[in-house]
């Protein structure tokens, strides 16, 4: 038996006797307690725990009610919150999550769920930000849907996976400005079951809040269908940086 097969056999035997071996999703170190991160990585993660804009939930430098971007152009959604700042290792993990790392949904949801229960405890249901069908087929999954499933299981708040749909492909947004993103996404989301929205408090779920263009485009049809609140919960958000 070669070394690789021997190692696979040993790992299989270990899992059968003691359960699945847990490793840190960030550095790969063995874990000896519950959770997804080792103590060292956990202490270095950029939690979004300082001053945040009360509207978009992004990190800000001082205790102001809202950031200047929200003040100048108020988002369509009611409020947003995120577990992490989109910095450091979180950037790498989010990119991994988008490119095959489905297992990271549980790691992100571990820190999103307490935020959901503390900030949006009156939510009626969760709605993952949808992908167009072709984009979903290319990736093989919708990461927002994986997060919603994990959050629903952890909090008991139901998730509606077909209520909001994305009706067309949109151009890649990475190089676009906020205004260009808004125009690119205009009219691309559709509410399939309007009755469910009437009087509802909806939590949109996504991986990252960048400019907020996607959240706005998804929130508008939900509000138009009668939702009283459209809240946004993401794994991470890009901190607000004041332009100098």
Characterise the protein shown here.
- This protein is an alpha/beta fold and 244 residues long.
- It has one domain (45-237): Rossmann fold.
- Helix content is 40%, strand content 14%.
- It contains 10 helices and 6 strands, in the order αααβααβααβαβαβαβ.
- The chain has a 4-stranded parallel sheet.
- Helix 5 packs across helix 7 (143-155) and helix 8 packs across helix 10 (213-224).
Concise synopsis of the structure shown:
With 244 residues, the chain is an alpha/beta fold. It has helices at 3-18, 39-44, 68-72, 88-98, 104-119, 133-139, 143-155, 178-185, 194-197, 213-224, and strands at 79-85, 125-128, 164-166, 189-191, 201-209, 229-237.
The total strand number stands at 6
Could you say how many structural domains there are in total?
Answer: 1
Summarize the amount of helix as a percent range.
40-55%
- Anisotropy-based shape: globular
Strand content: 5-15%
Mean pLDDT: 87
Counting H and I runs of at least 4 residues, what is the number of helices? Answer: 10
Task: Give, in order, the helices and strands.
Answer: HHHEHHEHHEHEHEHE
